[in-house]
Write a structure and sequence with these properties.
The mean pLDDT is about 95. This protein has a single domain, classed as Alpha-Beta Barrel (TIM Barrel). Helix content is about 45%, strand content about 15%. It has 11 helices and 8 strands. With about 290 residues, it is α/β, with parallel strands linked by helices. It binds flavin-adenine dinucleotide. Flavin-adenine dinucleotide (FAD) binds next to strand 3, helix 5, helix 6 and strand 6. Its EC number is 1.5.1.54. GO terms for molecular function: FAD binding; methylenetetrahydrofolate reductase (NADH) activity.
C-alpha cells in the first residue's frame, strides 16, 4: 500500500523513524528496536539512509522486514548527493524488486571536500524525484524546512525550489524537526499560498539529552525556544529527568498540532522504542478523539 493513500484516509496518522546500523553486526539491535516500535501500530515506519550510501543495503533490508514480517507500511529514504546516477538507479531497482512502494527522495548533505555540482550525479532532490517517477509506480515523499534549509539564505527561494520539487511528482512532505509550533503554522500558510497542496507531516524530535540537542542543532540549524532551553538548563544534568522532560515537551507539541487540525505527524523515534511507547501512551485517548 502507498503511504499517500493512508494519509488521505479520514484518520490520525502517527509514523516513526528508525536508522539502519552502520555495520551488519548492529543489525539485530536495530531490528529489535524496530519490532518494538511496530507494536505501537504506527501508520508507517521510515528508515533513513546513510549519507555516504554505505548503509543502503541495510536501509532496504530493514524496510523489507517492516513490510514483510511486521506488516507495517515502510518508507525507505534514499539520498543522491554522494552516489553516481547509476548507483542511485541500482538502489531504486533493488527497492522495486523488494516490493517497496514508498521512497523518501532526498539530496543528502554534500560530503565534505566534494566539489558540487560534480560529475555524473543528481544535484538536487527534484532530479531524484524525476528519476524515481521514471522507474516505477512509487509513492514519493520529500523533505521540507519550516525554518529554511541551512544552505539557503532566503526563505522565499527555499519555498520556490520546494514547489519545483513537489511539481516533479512528490506525493507528501515531511518537515525537518522544529521546536516551536508557530514556526510550522507560519510555514504551512506560506507554502499553501505558494500553491503547494500535498500533505505535510510535521517531524517531531523528542530531545532526551543535552548531547542530542547539540547534535540536532548542528544538523538542522533549528532554533530552540526559551521554554525548551529552560528544561535543559534545569534537568539536563539528570538523564532520567531530561528523558521525562523531553518526552513531555514532544508530547505537548504533538497535542498542540492535533488540536490545531494537523492529522499526520512523524516522530523521529531514533531507534528508541521506550520514547516512542511513552509518547503513544501520552496521546492514546487524544488520537481516538
Ligand atoms: P533539496 O530539496 O535538493 O534542497 C537542498 C538545497 O538546495 C536547499 O537549500 C534548496 O533550497 C536548494 N535547491 C533546491 N533546488 C534548487 C535549484 N533548482 N536551484 C538552486 N538551489 C536549489 N539525510 C540523509 O543523509 N539521510 C536521510 O535519511 C535523511 N532523511 C531526512 C529526512 C527528512 C524528513 C529531512 C527533513 C531531512 C533528511 N535528511 C537526510 C537530510 C537532508 O538530506 C539534508 O537536509 C540535505 O541537505 C537536503 O536534502 P533535500 O532533499 O531537502 O534537498
Amino acid at each position: 500500500m502507498k503511504i499517500i493513500d493512508r494519509l488521505n484516509e479520514d484518520r490520525i496518522n502517527i509514523s516513526f523513524e528508525v536508522f539502519p546500523p552502520k555495520t551488519d553486526a548492529g543489525f539485530a539491535n536495530v531490528q529489535r528496536a524496530t519490532d518494538e516500535i511496530a507494536k505501537l501500530d504506527p501508520s508507517y515506519i521510515s528508515v533513513t539512509y546513510g549519507a555516504g550510501g554505505g548503509t543502503s543495503k541495510n536501509t532496504a533490508k530493514i524496510a523489507s522486514h517492516i513490510k514483510d514480517d511486521l506488516h507495517v507500511l515502510s518508507l525507505a529514504h534514499l539520498t543522491c548527493a554522494s552516489s553516481t546516477k547509476e548507483e542511485v538507479r541500482e538502489v531504486i531497482r533493488n527497492l522495486k524488486e523488494l516490493g517497496i512502494e514508498n521512497i523518501l527522495a532526498l539530496r543528502g548533505d554534500i560530503p565534505e571536500g566534494m566539489k558540487f555540482p560534480d560529475g555524473d550525479r543528481f544535484h538536487y532532490a527534484y532530479e531524484l524525484v524525476e528519476e524515481i517517477r521514471k522507474q516505477g509506480d512509487f509513492c514519493i515523499g520529500a523533505a521540507c524546512y519550516p525554518e529554511g534549509h541551512v544552505e539557503n539564505e532566503h526563505k522565499e527561494d527555499d519555498i520556490r525550489f520546494l514547489k519545483q520539487k513537489v511539481d516533479c511528482g512528490v506525493d507528501f512532505l515531511t518537515t525537518q524537526m522544529f521546536f516551536d509550533n508557530d514556526i510550522h503554522y507560519n510555514f504551512l500558510y506560506r507554502i499553501r499560498e505558494a500553491g503547494i497542496t500535498v500533505p505535510v507531516l510535521p517531524g517531531i524530535m523528542p530531545i532526551t539529552s543535552a548531547a542530542q540537542m547539540k547534535r540536532s542543532q548542528e544538523l538542522s540549524g533549528t532554533v530552540f525556544p526559551r521554554r525548551f532551553l529552560a528544561l535543559l538548563d534545569r534537568f539536563g544534568s539528570s538523564p532520567e529527568a531530561m528523558m521525562q522532560a523531553g518526552i513531555a515537551y514532544a508530547t505537548d507539541q504533538i497535542i498542540d498540532l492535533l488540536a490545531n487540525g494537523v492529522k499526520n505527524i512523524h516522530i523521529y523515534s531514533m531507534n528508541k522504542p521506550e520514547v516512542a511507547t511513552k509518547i503513544m501512551s501520552n496521546i492514546s485517548e487524544i488520537i481516538k478523539c
